[in-house]
Amino acid sequence: MLFLNRNKFTQKYLKTISRIGGEIVNLKGTKTLENLMKAFAGESQARNRYTFYASVAKKEGFEQISALFRETADNEKEHAEVFFKHIIEGMTGELPVMVHVDADYPVDLRGTRENLKAAAAGENEEWTELYPTFADVAEKEGFRTVAESFRQIAKVEKRHETRYLKLLENVETEKVFKREEKVLWKCGNCGYILEAKEAPEQCPACKHSKAYFELFVENY
Known about the structure:
Residues 26-175 form the Ferritin-like diiron domain. The chain has 220 residues and is mostly helical.
C-alpha cells in the first residue's frame, strides 16, 4: 500500500515544500513567476527578430552583421532556456500550467541600420531596467538563484548593446568595408586575407563578393 501511494505522496510533498536550503523554490503566485515568463517571452521573441534581421543584413550585403545577428539570436535562445528552466523547477508539481502576463513587446523590421538601432535599444532596456528590477523582486521574494540569473544575463545584454552600437557606427560612417589606414581583411567564405584600406569588390581566391569580407583580428 505504501508503494502504491508513493507517487501521490511525492507530488503532495513537492507541492507543500516551499524552501530548500533556506531558499524559496515554489514560484506559484509570485511576481517572480510573472517576471520569468516575461523574460522568457522577451528572449524568445528577440531570438526570432534577430534571425529576421540577419536575413535582411545578408540581402543588403552585410555578411558579418548577418552572422552576428544569428550569433546573438543563439545567445538569446540560451537566455530563454535559463528562464524557462527556473519556471519548470519552481512549478514542480503544478505542471502543466498557464502563466498570464501583461506586457508589451517590440515589432520592427526595416533596413539593417534601423534594425541595429532597434536591437541596441532592446538590449539597453533589458540590462538597464528590466533585469535589474526583476532581480531585485526575486531577491525580495527569496529567489536568490533566479536573481543571480537575471543579473548575470544582464551583463551579456550590455555587451550585446555595445556590439550593436559599434556595428551601427560602422554602417553609418561607411566603415564596414573601408578604413582610413591599411588593415587586414579576411574573406569569410574561403579565409583569404589581404592588407588594404578597403575590402576588394571580389575575393581574389574564391570570387565571392565584398559582402563576405570583414576585419581580420586574431583573438586567440
